[in-house]
Design brief:
The protein has helices at 2-10, 17-27, 43-48, 61-68, 72-77, 82-85, 102-109, 112-129, 146-155, 159-172, 179-192, 200-207, 214-227, 242-251, 262-273, 276-292, 311-314, 318-323, 331-343, 347-360, 364-367, and strands at residues 131-133, 140-142. The chain has 376 residues and is an all-alpha fold. The chain has a two-stranded antiparallel ribbon. Belongs to the opioid growth factor receptor family.
Length: 376
């Protein structure tokens, strides 16, 4: 029994500060982002207009959509196309692929030819994962080949990086609403049907947090919390209600003046009201009592409590600060300032961090780790 307990404890998931920081920057439109390319360098748009091939393979988008569809071996083992099919405002592992610019995003959304092919590319990758797009609003369901492909998806965990990239790219190019149905299906298959159990960590750590609408993220996290096993290992979303109640108990008798003499305090109230500073102290105590009072899950932050033992919670995670309720005056400004300081780090420091992260992900297919890995 002791061995089983220790195994369960060691298997408890942990949050990743780097994942939270990356996804915070994505959801908030990359604070301090500056286009480093000329506006007329529309490489991603020209690729989707079939004007240029993707590098280094030299294949045009029409050939990818017509000849690569259904060729699961090629889609699995080629690692240079995904950055072109689903571009982002951040560098991937294919350094021939160009990052999106804000101007290019707007031009892309206005180009029907590019949008049509982009949706075909999305459908092709969904089929590769065993999923099908069933309508124009983004709803998805199991594809005919779902059993074979879900088994493959459960074992080839480097594809989780691809799914994160796809979700991000959908949001950049005007299809934010397509993300929630896909994430909901993946959570359902992982937590309820148990068809792709290996994906649940990436789904909760990455996929959910690509969604920019905080209410939608919380809805998905509540669904996941309901079905997650073991339930005590669920470290995402609102903290458990019993934790604030436990911490509230010792704080109740703390103020000596209001202990058992509430009536006396009532009689003294007119005298205190003449003293502005005393009234201010009474108001501040009332505000503190309100903070201690547990709230419904809908009102909690979607970042886990520090009780979960996450590295992110201990490190002042940007997701916690950015998504917290308005308990602090300007949470997002504080986080943006912290991120700005991080961006100002010396080139050597940034290169060292990137090098360390790349070392951790030299063979993502073998390690199966999504944490801290650069997107493909």
């Amino acid at each position: 029994m002791q061995e089983a307990d220790s195994t369960e404890v060691s298997a408890k998931p942990k949050r990743s500060f780097y994942a939270a920081r990356d996804l915070y920057k994505y959801r908030h439109q990359y604070p301090n982002f500056k286009d480093i390319r000329y506006q007329n360098d529309l490489s991603n748009l020209r690729f989707y207009k079939n004007k240029i091939p993707f590098k280094p393979d030299g294949v045009y988008i029409e050939e990818v959509l017509s000849k690569w569809k259904g060729d699961y071996e090629k889609l699995e083992y080629s690692h240079t196309y995904i950055q072109w099919l689903f571009p982002l405002r951040e560098q991937g592992l294919n350094f021939y692929a160009k990052e999106l610019t804000t101007y290019e995003i707007e031009e892309f959304k206005k180009t029907k030819e590019a949008i049509r092919r982009f949706l075909l590319a999305y459908k092709m990758m969904l089929e590769f994962f065993g999923i099908k797009l069933i309508d124009k609003t983004g709803n998805v369901a199991r594809a005919v080949n779902w059993q074979e492909r879900f088994q493959h998806l459960n074992e080839s965990q480097h594809n989780y990086l691809r799914i994160t990239r796809i979700l991000k790219s959908l949001g950049e190019l005007g299809y934010e609403s397509f993300k929630s149905p896909l994430v909901k299906l993946i959570l359902h298959e992982a937590l309820v049907e148990n068809t792709i159990p290996n994906i649940k960590q990436s789904a909760l750590e990455y996929f959910v947090y690509t969604i920019r609408d905080r209410r939608e993220r919380r809805r998905l996290l509540r669904f996941a919390q309901k079905h997650y096993t073991p339930s005590e290992n669920f470290i995402w979303g609102p903290p458990r209600r019993e934790q604030p109640e436990g911490s509230k108990a010792p704080k109740t008798p703390a103020p000596p003046t209001s202990g058992h003499h509430s009536q006396t305090s009532m009689h003294k109230k007119p005298k205190d009201s003449k003293n502005p500073s005393a009234a201010g102290r009474v108001n501040s105590k009332a505000a503190e009592d309100k903070k201690v009072t547990p709230r419904e899950p809908e009102e909690e932050t979607d970042w886990p409590s520090s009780e979960a033992g996450s590295e992110a919670a201990r490190s002042g995670d940007p997701e916690r600060e950015g998504d917290a309720d308005n308990s602090s005056p300007q949470p997002e400004e504080a986080v943006a300032h912290a991120l700005e300081k991080k961006e100002r780090a010396s080139p050597s420091e940034k290169d060292e961090e990137r090098e360390n992260r790349n070392k951790d992900c030299e063979s993502p297919g073998e390690t199966g780790s999504h944490d801290d890995a650069p997107l493909q």
